[in-house]
């Protein structure tokens, strides 16, 4: 087969190519489109032929049915089938493109939905890191106490005060000392004249009956 037969009888040659060379895809056949050089190149690419081998195989084909009487009806049918194939492939490509765009849109929406909560969370932690710490003040003997004592707590506070009053060197100190009890936790507030007196009051309170814990807020004046 020579170049003229290929170009002038491309519709029939195309059908024979599909039969003889199954490795050629529809896209390959459309790229050849009756061009001899393209046919040689595709055979080299798909079958590993050298240029000479590809041309020899083309020349050896028997194309008597191509160069014989033309069947106009068959040619028109082949053209319609080819046009339908092209339309189907174009439709498939468009649908694939639309599907990819929808997938990308879905991914973007998902990332956006995930990003907003993360941004809010990061903003919260950043603002928390710069927040001014709260200041907790420890009540002193001159400040009003809002501790609600149960009868048992009042008994502990009263017992400790009486015990301290029985000590000659502590009687004067109690004028600036406040003793409160809440659920067995004794708080000593106010001021005393020395560290020794502060430690003595703490130890005495720890050894008292019903005391679970002692909080020493005494200041040395």
Describe the protein in words.
- By secondary structure, the chain is mainly alpha-helical.
- Among the domains are: 65 residues, Protein Yjbj, Chain: A, CATH 1.10.1470.10; 70 residues, Alpha-Beta Plaits.
- It has 9 helices and 3 strands, in the order H-H-H-H-H-H-H-H-E-E-H-E.
- A 3-stranded mixed beta sheet has the order 1-2-3.
- Helix 3 packs antiparallel against helix 4 and helix 4 packs across helix 5.
- The N and C termini lie far apart (120 Å).
- About 7% of the residues have low confidence.
Properties at a glance:
221 residues, BON domain-containing protein, YjbJ_sf, BON_dom, membrane, Alpha-Beta Plaits
CATH architecture heading of the domain at 151-220:
2-Layer Sandwich
SSE class: mainly alpha
Q: What is the typical, i.e. mean, pLDDT?
A: 78
What top-tier CATH class of the domain at 151-220 fits best? Alpha Beta
**General form:** rod-shaped
Number of strands: 3
Main sheet characteristics: 3 strands, mixed
- Gap between N and C termini, in Å? 120 Å
The percent range for strand residues is: 5-15%
Rg calculated over all Cα atoms: 51 Å
Percent range of helical residues:
55-70%
Order of helices and strands: HHHHHHHHEEHE
Question: What low-confidence regions span 5 or more consecutive residues with pLDDT below 50?
Answer: 130-145
Strand arrangement, major sheet: 1-2-3
Number of helices: 9
CATH topology of the domain at 151-220: Alpha-Beta Plaits
Organism: Parachlamydia acanthamoebae (strain UV7)
Keywords: Membrane, Transmembrane, Transmembrane helix
InterPro entries: BON_dom, YjbJ_sf
Domain BON: 152-221
């Amino acid at each position: 087969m020579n170049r003229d037969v290929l170009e002038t009888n491309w519709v029939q040659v195309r059908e024979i190519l599909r039969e003889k060379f199954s490795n050629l895809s529809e896209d390959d056949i459309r790229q050849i489109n009756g061009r001899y050089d393209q046919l040689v190149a595709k055979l080299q690419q798909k079958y590993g032929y050298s240029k000479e081998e590809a041309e020899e195989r083309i020349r050896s084909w028997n194309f008597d049915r191509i160069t014989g009487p033309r069947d106009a009806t068959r040619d028109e049918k082949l053209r319609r089938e080819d046009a339908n194939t092209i339309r189907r492939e174009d439709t498939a490509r468009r649908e694939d493109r639309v599907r990819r765009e929808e997938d990308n849109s879905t991914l973007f929406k998902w990332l956006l939905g995930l990003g907003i909560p993360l941004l809010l969370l990061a903003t919260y932690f950043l603002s928390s890191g710069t927040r001014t710490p709260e200041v907790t003040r420890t009540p002193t003997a001159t400040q009003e106490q809002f501790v609600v004592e149960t009868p048992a707590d009042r008994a502990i506070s009263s017992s400790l005060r009486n015990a301290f009053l029985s000590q000659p060197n502590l009687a004067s100190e109690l004028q600036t000392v406040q003793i409160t009890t809440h659920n067995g936790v004794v708080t000593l507030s106010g001021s005393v004249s020395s560290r020794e007196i502060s430690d003595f009051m703490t130890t005495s309170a720890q050894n008292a009956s019903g005391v679970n814990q002692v909080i020493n807020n005494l200041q040395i004046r």
